User: Fold these one by one.
Assistant:
Number 1:
Amino acid sequence: MLRFFSLRVFRALLTVTLVVTFAFVVLRMSADPALIILGPEAPPEVIAAFRKSWGLDEPIWVQYVDYVAAIFRGELGRSMRDGRPAIELVAERIPATLALTLPALALKIAIGIPAGIWASLHRGTFVDRTVMAAAVAGFTVPSFVLGLVLVLIFSVQLGWLPSGGQDTWIHAILPIVTMGVGGAAVLARFTRSAMLEVLGQPYMRTASAKGLPWARAIRDHALPNAAIPTVTIVGFMVGTLIAGAVVVESVFSWPGVGRLLVVAVSNRDLAVVQCILLLVAATMVLSNLMVDFLYGFLDPRLAAGARAGGH
């Protein structure tokens, strides 16, 4: 079990390193921050002084070494726009993003998993077809399209809800629903597939043949075994809480991390973009790591298999 977890931790650290390196190189190759921030009309000596003050005149490998060293010192750089620490700018936006993403995640789980279980227990019926049709619709409609449709209906036509902003909790309803619908559809589809696979296993037929009540067989055997693939999807959703808010926050003018990322990318504010990408990568890696740990406890055979494969 220790070998299983150690291997997962090593892969997680390697993934974060690769993401940080890729983002660092791509951001510096895409455009010159000095020209974007100061403008192409700025005098050459001003542009040169700006590059020197931010270390942009150094070779890229020197900039990378300095950046990694700063990370180990707990420094994530400063915004090229106002000179504030990038981590402060990002930290200010995290509560607003979590105010959307956590309720949206709860909505996904509360709707998607029960809908998938219900559909699997009524396979081939009207209930099953209705749930799957709704899931396909919710999965295929892009979040920005759904958000605009909700604004058109509930804000423009009916006037029930505000179309954007963060003044009251009512402003969060449409963004939360927008993010929750697609995730609930994905969870419903995967939960149904996992349940159908488990329901077709020999041990379910054996339990029924031994006289075990069907409801108890579902509770004691089907649900625990179907939990593993479902945990995978939920873990992925936890990992994409911040990244998944980019589009929705832009549509609803919500002042969260996702909207800050869009602005920072357009302004080539390197430290802020790198800080957000590092946060997103760490969140995704930690969520996947937690899923791997849950795998080891839900099904110790996975850890045993990893240990055997190592030999």
Number 2:
Amino acid sequence: MLIQRLGAASRHVVLVVMCVIALGPGYLMVTGSLKSQAEFLGHPWALPTSPDLEAYRTTFNDQFTRWLFNSVLVTSVAVLLTMVIAALAAWGLVNWPFRGRDTVLGITVSLMVVPPVVLLMPLFQVGAELGWISTYRIVILVYVGLMLPFSIYLLANFFRTIPASLLEAAALDGASPFQVFRRIVLPLSGAPVATLVVVNLLWAWNELLLALVFLQTDEKKTLMVGITGFQSRYSLDIPTVMAGMVVATLPLAAAYMFGQRYFIRGLTAGGLKGE
């Protein structure tokens, strides 16, 4: 009994230490954004004695608002297109047998291991020939292409667990294949779809390399690209940099808080047949 209690206590200690390590940078970022430069340098880990929003005012007086809008636009359009294409492709690969179906799915899954940096030069050459450099469309299309393999894989695994008898009953009632997909399959796919939306949103929002290469004008930069220059510009004004980081993190925190309850259920939805 004593050994069991010591084991449980040690696990709790480890969890508390891990939580402190994980939440420490966030605490420093939020409290630092509410301090003056002198207060932060003097007591970086202390709570702000007199919270000040001057750093946030400085942040939004810059091009931060424009970068935020660009990130919202690029991320939302890319995630929406990814989910529509992935759902239709996964359902076609699962529901409509054709020669080479498993090969197509296998090739699609294998694309998940291709690092984006390998595709950077050929994609840039194609974008330059099309005149798409410094446009939203090139970044959105590249994001969609990179997010599709995992999205198709996850949805295909889940679609296989939907009972065939349920689909056959809907077909006998006169539902067309698309009506079966829209009225039965999609409503049953809430958990994996929500998981993919959050995962893809987090990736697209945080992506830096591709956006840095393809979006070269200031008015088209996404938030992550803008922050790289923002940090250099305000390198001596730590509270302003911290305020920019807080604003950039808030959408991600909101997305995670909304979708975290779907993560485990969504990622394991296709793990067991008939789940």
Number 3:
Amino acid sequence: MLTTRVGGPSDAPVVARLWAAADAARRAAACTEAGTGAGHHDETTAEARALRMLAGAGSLLVVAEDEGEPAAMTVVVQALARDGAGDPVPGLAHVTMVAVDPSRWGLGLGAAVVTRAQAEARGLGYTQAQLWTQQSNARADRLYRRLGWTLSGRTNTDEHGEPIRHYTRAL
């Protein structure tokens, strides 16, 4: 049975590994679809990044569990101006690290955690939300559009040099 809940510090190691595995699988799938090599992915570094994000002040972890096992997650944080380098933007939540266990892709778990994250953010007083995802991630694009997110027209590159695009949504 699928349940969603707000996570806590004790969840950090498990969901950090989940995020690292999902990120590695997404990158491998994108390379396969593009007909390029698998590229370099360091799961230890990815897991460390996830643990730092989860430890941040004010971060809100949402976990989906299937039969008691974490199967999907996302994090909500206060959005900062200048793509994270500036001051807090009042009323704007930043949704990040949406991840689903690759063995459970396509089962609606991404929608479950994003929907719960939106509700939790609204409950914290946020009125708008934003997120970024890789341009090559067609699965995420379909999910976000289905949940009412729209492309803002902004683009950038992630820490791996991969093109990303920006989505927004009223809460």
Number 4:
Amino acid sequence: MTADFLLSLAQAITKGLLTGMVYGLMALGLSVIFGVMRVVNFAHGEIMVVGMYLAWMGFEYLQVSPMLSLPVIALIFFGAGYALQRVVISPFIGRPEHQQFLLLLAIAILLVNACLVVAGPDSRGVQMESQFDSYELGPFVFDAVRAHAALTAVVIAGLLWLFFTRTRTGKSIRAAADNNLGALVVGLDVRRLYAFTFGVGAACVGAAGALMITIIPVTPFLAAEYTLLAFVIVIVGGLGSMTGALAGGLLIGVSEAVAGLLLQPSLKSMVSFGILILVLLLRPQGLFGKSST
């Protein structure tokens, strides 16, 4: 191997790690919702695409950077997720899984078509000055937007960890996830905690969408791809594990970047699904998941 190839490989790995942090934040929302409610959000990618569109609209019509509009988008998504869970999803908790699937699939279709009506099928992106900037560290060159997005994702993940481990509400949510009946016995409002959890998960996805629009343009047809990608990440990392979601995002981000260098960019999904199959064969519960036995 030549020095130039090794440098290109290291550069691709670095790029994959930065993108993987945003992937991890996206998957974190799915993992949190499943870990607490045991509901698989099949509208996950669609929610993220809506977040990308909101960030694009803020930049296009209000000249507000996606980084600045991110807190507002996360707050909007929290409120929308809370209301959606209380009004629509809550009656389906405890019902057969196929009914939950059909409900969330219907929500996904509604969201995609709403995006088509509002923005059309063409790709939409933001053009910021920082997209042409980069940072140098020795022989490595980092895209500024990817570095900013990755750093923001790390900060949000850290705040989420503090919320679940240090606050009363976060501890109550964890208690409801570990023992639903016990939480009811001690007087916890489990329905409200479930709605709060769905709101937190939706806020993570919305924030990830605001970060992702700075990296790639958005179309409504990306939704299914991101839903599938989120499932791959959380299954590889371990369903319900926050650490697993972040680690899975990093692993998939690096695998896609390296596959784009060594093979072709169009084959990056093949490598991701290859990793998924390998993990399912060797460790079905995921890298950080708990075994059911």
